[in-house]
Specification:
Number of domains: 1
Strand order of the largest sheet: 8-9-10
Helix content: 10-25%
Radius of gyration: 15 Å
Structural class: alpha+beta
Shape: globular
Number of strands: 11
Number of helices: 4
Largest sheet: 3 strands, antiparallel
Distance between the termini: 20 Å
Strand content: 15-25%
Length: 181
């Protein structure tokens, strides 16, 4: 799999889904305002990828043929699959790499290699402790905002949740358009 900047990525088949096995590192200069390096350090990008606003993530995903931003259901299927096929491990342990804080290092049993890039929402937080990945799925509007579903990982847990403003900067994983049956 290759992004619009020419970066190549490892992919992994988990169940009948094909996922990127790395966080997105694409940096189209025309979208630079919607992209930040994790924890403010450009030296973190090679390992952790960039953090993106929701609109930027959707725009980039739409320009990579055969790949898309996952839905809430895609992440739910992923979590259910790893729980069924590795019941002795939590979903966090099954998907997280070994590069989390010493208290929460995962086993990466399925090769998903989830990394704790944290988030940016006016300031950086969660680097090395939490990871958040955009979905394309929105929920019912709440006041002036439209909450977006995300995969949230940290504290030895992996869950789908709401709560993010589309202007937050989070990690991105893409899923292949056509899953293998």
């Amino acid at each position: 799999m290759q992004d619009t900047s020419g970066n190549s990525y490892q992919t992994i088949k988990i169940g009948n889904q094909i996922w990127m096995a790395e966080n997105l590192r694409d940096y189209p200069t025309n979208l630079a305002g919607g992209i930040f390096p994790p924890n403010g350090g450009q030296n973190n990008v090679a390992q952790y990828g960039y953090l993106y606003t929701w609109d930027t993530a959707r725009t980039i995903a739409s320009k990579i043929p055969g790949w898309r931003l996952p839905t809430k259901d895609d992440f739910t299927d992923l979590l259910n699959y790893v729980k069924r096929h590795n019941p002795s491990c939590s979903e966090f342990d099954s998907l997280a790499s070994h590069n989390w804080s010493i208290l929460h290092s995962g086993k990466n049993a399925f090769g998903f290699n989830a990394l704790p890039a944290g988030e940016y929402n006016g300031s950086y937080s969660g680097f090395y402790f939490h990871g958040y990945w955009w979905t394309s799925t929105t929920a019912a509007p709440s006041g002036n905002t439209v909450p977006i579903n995300v995969l949230a990982m940290g504290n030895n847990q992996a869950t789908i949740r709401l709560a993010f403003n589309p202007q937050c900067f989070l990690s991105v994983r893409l899923i292949a358009d056509e899953n293998i049956g």
